[in-house]
Design a protein that fits this description.
single chain; 278 residues; alpha/beta; Spore Coat Polysaccharide Biosynthesis Protein SpsA, Chain A; 8-stranded mixed beta sheet; 9 helices; 41% helix; globular
Length: 278
């Protein structure tokens, strides 16, 4: 079983070094890394040349910006049996690829698996599913994030490219949920995907502070979530239910005197509504 890892990157160096180190530390070696470079300079050339001596690595340039656009370019080059989409600021724990290979080899009925994430100190964000379970259109929001998705090649061949209007750098208001959209499309084709509660990847937690930058980023994410719910034809009763918990979070934050957090959650709800209405 060969892995093809499609990594889109722009503006980062140290974080990418961390990922490359974690990838080189994997005991499972049957993989290729396709780095889709959206930088306007050569900051990665020497780094990637060095790692090309350690494992199979392809470095391609992307003229157009956007993570979905970059992933689609990478998908044109993959030749593995399992495809994944690591972020340029995530990193893999020891033994991850072996674990994924073991699960998929042991369960040929599964078309893909997903996991959760923590940062280097064990912190996380969001509400993850509590146990391993098959994904459906309602629990998928708590059972996957882009860099934790591992799909068999047959899924990619049928579902096709990512929606390039979604995701970071797309040039639209919909700055997230491109991976969830891809999973929803996969589910519509009848593919069987499973969340593995004991599969944990690593990524920085970005909502520990609620300053202006965090609010701006979250609004793009939430607008993307609302948009993906709408284009995937969720029933109208479902959307207000998804907003209710966040609204309760606003009230709890206000009651506790955490006005920055209350504002953060309030703006999140408004952005999700904009995405849904659009």
């Amino acid at each position: 079983m060969k892995f093809s890892l499609v990594l889109a990157t722009v503006g980062r160096f140290d974080e990418l070094v961390r990922f490359l180190e974690s990838l080189d530390a994997q005991d499972y070696r049957n993989f290729e890394l396709i780095v889709v470079d959206q930088n306007g300079d050569d900051r990665l050339v020497a780094l990637l040349r060095r790692y090309r001596q350690k494992f199979s690595l392809r470095h391609v340039r992307a003229l157009a910006r956007g993570v979905s656009c970059a992933r689609n370019l990478g998908l044109e080059l993959v030749d593995g049996d399992v495809i994944a989409f690591p972020d340029d600021d995530c990193w893999y724990p020891a033994g991850l690829l072996q674990k994924v290979a073991t699960v998929l080899n042991s369960h040929p009925e599964l078309d893909g698996i997903t996991g959760r994430f923590t940062d280097g100190d064990g912190n996380t964000e969001g509400r993850w599913l509590e146990s391993s379970v098959l994904l459906n259109r309602y629990n998928v929001w708590r059972g996957a994030i882009e860099f934790s998705i591992f799909l068999r090649r047959r899924v990619i061949d049928v579902v096709g490219p990512f929606d390039e209007t979604l995701g970071v750098g797309a040039g639209t208001a919909w700055g997230a949920a491109e991976g969830t959209d891809y999973l929803l499309r996969s589910l519509r084709y009848g593919f069987k995907l499973k969340f593995m509660a004991d599969m944990t990847l690593h990524h920085p937690v970005k909502t520990s502070h609620f300053d202006a930058n965090a609010c701006n980023r979250q609004q793009k994410y939430e607008a993307g979530i609302g948009r993906v719910m709408r284009i995937n034809h969720y029933p109208f009763w479902y959307f207000p239910i998804t907003c209710m918990r966040t609204c309760c979070g606003v009230l709890v934050a206000l009651a506790g005197g955490n006005f920055l957090k209350a504002r953060f959650k309030y703006l999140s709800v408004l952005a999700r509504m904009r995405g849904w209405r659009a």
